[in-house]
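pinned: reference chain
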Amino acid sequence: MPLTLNLTSEIEQYLSQKATEKGLSLEAYVLKLLKDAILEQEKQTKLVNLLQYWIDEEDEQEQQETGEYLIEALDQDRLSKRPLFPAELKGVTW
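pinned: its structure tokens
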């Protein structure tokens, strides 16, 4: 499907330069950019849907346990002895 775009000379020059650097024609490079953007948007949408599904599950106890496990794992895996999530700040800053 042919598509005509009215680009500023700066954008056209930028795209031409990048296409040349990649060893692609201008058309192939722009098509690759569009495909990459669409795939990235689809991945983001899937991730948002998954996160929303987890939120909607309403299993608060499991979420609480998972959060506590994550905090403990992050504190234990630090190079520093200073905890990332100190117990005395629970409920205050996190």
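why pinned: The first helix runs from residue 9 to 22. DSSP finds three helices and no strands in the chain.
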